[in-house]
Amino acid sequence: MLALELQNRIKQFNPWLIKPERAKELIHGFLPKGYVHREMEKAAVKSDRALLIVGPRQSGKSTLVWHEVQSFSPNILFLNMEEPLLRTMGAQPIDFVHLVREQYPFIATLFIDEIQHIDEAALFVKALVDAKLNLPIWVTGSSSFHLRSRTRESLAGRAIRRRLLPFSLKELLGYANPRNPVEERHVSEQIFSHQLVMGSFPAVYLATEREKKSMLLNELVESLVLRDASDLFRIKRIDAFRRLLTLLAGQIGNLVNLSELASICNVDVGTIASYIDILEQSHVLKRTRPFAGGKRREITGAPKVYFIDNGIRNQLLNQLNSQLELRPDIGQLLENWVFTEIFKALPLRSSLEFWRSKAGAEVDFVVEHAAELHAFEVKSSSMTQPRLTRSAWSFLEAYKPKSFTVVNMALEAELQVEGIKVRFITSYELPSRLCAIFD
Q: In what side-by-side order are the strands of the sheet with 403-408?
């Protein structure tokens, strides 16, 4: 059985089990004053499966679960695997199952937070589900625990996986709750400007002072570089890892050349590839692959890299100037922002890629959803008339997508091109456009 010291620590993490009359007050302490409703892809919480919510650190995963499990109060059993003593349970899940059955038979739900700190997290979750505790099991963490697993245990059939990223424009508009269309557009523009520069991580967005926002961004970056890289993944060349992050931050929208990056960072290509894997699994950045629709003159090799959050990207480059008209990288900011908004709304089974021909024609984003194609171009330059680029024409003629959207800074218009409706939209209209595609 689990050691008495460990059992006492579990009680310390769950004071409402000892004092159920104070449960509402104690559990409410885990929630912020204002809750931003999250638009995570819906999933039914079942007693025969775990609900695994993954995403970057401080993206609101724990807050989301606490908001959802309040209805089970006071019969909630909570485990935070950042606590070293609780972490030892990863090696003895059967003993933990016995503890739950013998001492906590009244428990209505189980919440395991920060599970990536367990060496064999997937094995632990699998054991809990297979034990048939007949409880909803909520699990949060990054998917990076697979990188640290010796067995690569699959949770197929035992867990429903959902992704939670920093706030989207749609979520923040819902939180602001504007009272009329004029206010809605004004608030949307303010949120958009914030997202372009400071990003959308909850703590950063909700901070009231700019200096505080900058400090929080710096702490996030240092946590990613120092804590995750050196402590969690035991990366030896932290200097090369940091250098790679900075290089990738400056190459938004460009094809990734591993050999060139390896040369600059003074490591081999395999090391660069492994570092990018870690960054992707830790939800710092995301690779987009070239869309291959079967045409001969398409590029099908090198990917592009986008950051999950503009604020992290800008902090890495020490570029937090909020005067957008003075920023030479406005094109990269807008392109990365459009990527993040699409990716936040993207169902897990849908794909997000880019298209590029050997002749140089290119479309920034191609979404394949429900067996249909939807294309997006991003234009930061001033547009006064709805005109398509040659690249757009090439893609439309070749693939006849269900929709084609040009995201720009000012123009709102529509064109009909060979029966396809081409929309020119600003940031304000992107949430509704994505809803129309994915809902």
A: 351-356, 362-369, 372-379, 403-408, 420-425, 413-417
Could you read off the pLDDT of 364-386 as tens digits, one per residue?
Answer: 999 999 999 999 999 998 888 99
The domain that holds 68 is classified in CATH as 3.40.50.300
Identify the domain containing residue 65 by its residue range.
Answer: 4-163
From the number of C-beta atoms within 10 Å of its C-beta (0-12, 13-18, 19+), residue 249 rates as buried
Strand (E) positions, 258-398? 285-288, 304-307, 351-356, 362-369, 372-379
Do 115 and 179 lie in one domain? The reply is: no
Q: 76 with 44: CB under 8 angstroms?
A: no
> What distance in Å separates the CA atoms of residue 276 and residue 284, rounded to the nearest whole number?
9
Tokens of 16: 């409402």
> Do 242 and 356 share a structural domain?
yes
Based on the domain organization, do 159 and 43 belong to the same domain? yes
Residue-level length of the chain? 439
Give CA–CA dist 129/49, Å, rounded: 6
* Cβ neighbours around 11 below 10 Å, total: 11
pLDDT at 6 over 90: no
Q: What does the pLDDT read at residue 434?
A: 96
Domain end position, chosen among 102, 134, 163: 163
75, 193: one domain: no
Identity of residue 284: V
DSSP-assigned states of every residue in 42-71: P----TTSEEEEE-STTSSHHHHHHHHHGG
Longest dimension (CA), the chain: 72
Inter-residue long-range contacts of 44-48, CB under 8 Å, 24+ positions, other chains counted: 44/160, 45/136, 45/138, 46/136, 46/160, 47/133, 47/134, 47/135, 47/136, 48/129, 48/132
Looking at residue 192, what is its pLDDT? 97
pLDDT given for residue 147 in this prediction: 47
**Pairwise CA distance, residues 47 & 18, whole Å:** 25
Q: Single out the residue in 163, 183, 212 at which a domain terminates.
A: 163
